[in-house]
Amino acid sequence: MTHLSDDERTKYYLVDIETGSQFDNFERDQEVISPLPPKVGEYLNQSGLYFEVLTLLQHFDANYVDVYVRYVGDSAKFLDHIQTKLASKS
Q1: Residue 51: closest CA among 19, 75, 24, 21
Q2: Helices and strands (DSSP H and E) totals, the chain
Q3: Among 25, 24, 10, which residue's Cα sits nearest to residue 62?
Q4: By the 8 A CB rule, do 13 and 65 touch?
């Protein structure tokens, strides 16, 4: 298994789809830490804050990806969101 240096590893950064900028609680250099890249339709959890991945923007001239997300809410709001989404599919 090949280990990449920090310079070689693709970095993923959360971007608020509504504002086009980072969330207030996130610094530009605070990347998504995951063994796999985020995928459209997935949900991400950061310290009890839940986000839905809407789309990705790969910067091919740099080694990073903007992960455009919609803030869902805390764990209670996330659970309500999932229940509502599942109920609408029935």
Answers
A1: 75
A2: 1, 4
A3: 10
A4: yes
The Cα 14–Cα 7 span in angstroms is: 19
Q: What is the DSSP letter of 53?
A: E
Give the predicted TM-score (pTM) of the model: 0.80
For Cα atoms 70, 7, 32, give the angle at the middle one, nearest 5 degrees.
20
Q: Given the DSSP bridges, would you call strands 49-59 and 64-73 parallel, antiparallel or unpaired? A: antiparallel
Distance CA 32, CA 39 (A): 12
Over the stretch 28-60, which tens digit does the pLDDT of each residue have? 567 777 778 899 999 998 888 899 999 999 998
